[in-house]
């Protein structure tokens, strides 16, 4: 029989189970990073979950050289930023590749390729094309190959002693070697490659390949993305469980508006998150006017603005990559733990003077400086109080998520004293745990409904929360005698 007694006609035992007392608040995710950016391969506009840099490279390929990108003045951003985020401590990342698709057909040009020719007359035999990704039905995903094939080295040769023809493919630490007696058989053997697709054979199957060695060439990755392309990629993350948002390689001056729009939409849907952006220009040790001007255009308790950039090998990367390190570090911290004074595995590109740091803090910029290592000076948002501290913003978001999880199961249940008491017990259990975890120093909670509210289907929950704040300053008075 059902666990709710609707009628009693046939004699028997009818049991109603009231399970409200078993409702509790489950686990809440606090460290998921969402990121959009450009890459050498991978599906465009699709969310992929990553747990390591190796996962990122497998899906999105290696980044190009920052100082000499494949597309002039437009280096790839996604994997480069993911590297910084994982070095900062990121554990779960939801990534979306953005690309500027060709006008008219929403497709990028052909992927990187290598033409194998005949040794006898140098005529075309078959073409190797860098593989794209496959969907769940094992069908190729459009636009997923890009330029990653330019990192594949192709070698064709013939053993003079045995007459065996060889085709070798090398990518990072992976090598594939195919051997055959004829050009046609070599082409057939190469179809088993996990790196490339092989075209049909042109002409006779006899003979061998022209000896050659070199990388694949060509392809396009759509790295010259516009703001609309980035907005489309951000849209893919709106329904995902993201807590920290990044736009790889892009400054707040360019993407600040679309990011704030994204944050507002996700807030309305109950998917609160914080965006961490970098400044466009670092300024110098004594001149931070450009930084403060950019900061003046932002005032949002869900946006963090980071300066300066960072040094990576021989390259100086913009502050958006420092933002990725900050995001990775933030993902490792509980919501109530402040970023203030936390060390980062990064070398700042500018060492600001004390006066410049003071100016930047006054403009609500999160500054990374060298002091006992490289540290965050203060973990602040671009907003004035009450949500100037990132930790307070995250703590309140955590409380909202928990209250939502605890309250939603009561929707549709009876609006009477028994059920309201159960709801209060559920929320009380969650909030008391926040006190034990030191997220709150205290709270007050009431769950009520007047008769008019009962008729309207309303249950009123009022809570007064006292978030735990961090120590930003230690004031010492020394009395000497």
Describe the overall structure.
By secondary structure, the chain is of the alpha/beta class. Among the domains are: 33-101 and 223-379, Rossmann fold (3-Layer(aba) Sandwich), CATH 3.40.50.11780; 113-215, Immunoglobulin-like, CATH 2.60.40. It is 27% helix and 20% strand. It has helices at residues 53-60, 78-88, 183-190, 227-235, 252-268, 289-296, 319-332, 354-362, 390-407, 417-436, 451-456; strands spanning 33-37, 47-50, 93-97, 113-117, 124-130, 153-158, 165-171, 174-180, 196-198, 212-215, 244-247, 274-278, 303-307, 310-312, 315-317, 366-370, 374-376, 440-448, 460-467. It has an eight-stranded mixed β-sheet, sandwiched between helices. Helix 2 packs across helix 7 (319-332) and helix 4 (227-235) runs parallel beside helix 5 (252-268). The longest helix is centred in the C-terminal third of the chain and has 20 residues, at 417-436. The radius of gyration is 29 Å and the shape is flat. Belongs to the myoviridae tail sheath protein family. Residues 383-480 form the Tail sheath protein C-terminal domain. Pfam families: Phage_sheath_1C (PF17482). InterPro entries: Tail_sheath_C. It comes from Nocardioides jejuensis.
């Amino acid at each position: 029989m059902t666990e709710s007694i609707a009628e009693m006609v046939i004699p028997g035992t009818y049991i109603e189970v009231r399970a409200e007392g078993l409702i509790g608040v489950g686990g809440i995710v606090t460290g998921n990073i969402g990121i959009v950016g450009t890459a050498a391969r991978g599906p465009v506009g699709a969310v992929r979950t990553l747990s390591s840099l190796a996962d990122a490279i497998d899906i999105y390929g290696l980044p190009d050289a920052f100082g000499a990108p494949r597309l002039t003045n437009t280096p790839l951003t996604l994997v480069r930023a993911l590297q910084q985020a994982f070095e900062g401590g990121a554990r779960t990342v939801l990534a979306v590749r953005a690309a500027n698709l060709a006008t008219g057909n929403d497709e990028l040009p052909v992927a990187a390729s290598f033409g194998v020719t005949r040794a006898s007359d140098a005529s075309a035999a078959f073409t190797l094309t860098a593989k794209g990704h496959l969907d769940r039905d094992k069908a190729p995903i459009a636009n997923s190959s890009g330029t990653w094939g330019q990192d594949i080295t192709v070698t064709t040769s013939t053993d003079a002693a045995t007459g065996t023809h060889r085709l070798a493919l090398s990518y990072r630490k992976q090598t594939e070697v195919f051997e055959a007696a004829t050009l046609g058989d070599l082409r057939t053997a190469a179809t088993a490659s996990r790196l490339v697709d092989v075209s049909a054979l042109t002409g006779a199957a006899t003979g061998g390949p022209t000896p050659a060695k070199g990388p694949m060439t060509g392809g396009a990755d759509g790295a010259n993305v516009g703001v609309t392309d980035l907005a489309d990629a951000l849209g893919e993350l709106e329904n995902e469980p993201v807590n920290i948002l990044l736009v790889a390689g892009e400054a707040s001056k360019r993407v600040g508006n679309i990011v704030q729009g994204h944050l507002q939409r996700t807030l309305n849907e109950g998917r609160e998150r914080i965006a961490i952006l970098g400044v466009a220009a670092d300024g110098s040790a004594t001149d931070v006017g450009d930084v403060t001007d950019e900061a003046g255009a932002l005032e949002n308790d869900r946006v963090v603005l980071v300066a300066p950039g960072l040094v990576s090998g021989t390259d100086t990367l913009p502050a958006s990559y420092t933002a990725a390190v900050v995001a990775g570090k933030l993902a490792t911290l509980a919501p109530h733990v402040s970023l203030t004074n936390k060390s980062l595995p990064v070398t700042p590109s500018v060492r600001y003077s004390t006066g410049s740091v003071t100016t930047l803090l006054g403009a609500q910029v999160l500054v990374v400086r060298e002091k006992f290592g490289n540290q965050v000076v203060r973990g602040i948002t671009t907003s004035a109080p009450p949500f100037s501290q990132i930790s307070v913003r995250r703590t309140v978001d955590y409380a909202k998520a928990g209250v939502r999880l605890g309250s939603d199961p009561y929707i549709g249940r009876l609006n009477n004293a028994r059920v309201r008491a159960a709801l209060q017990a559920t929320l009380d259990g969650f909030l008391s745990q926040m006190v034990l975890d030191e997220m709150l120093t205290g709270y007050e909670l009431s769950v009520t409904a007047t008769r008019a509210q009962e008729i309207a289907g309303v249950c009123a929950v009022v809570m007064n929360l006292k978030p735990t704040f961090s120590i930003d300053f230690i004031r010492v008075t020394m009395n000497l005698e």
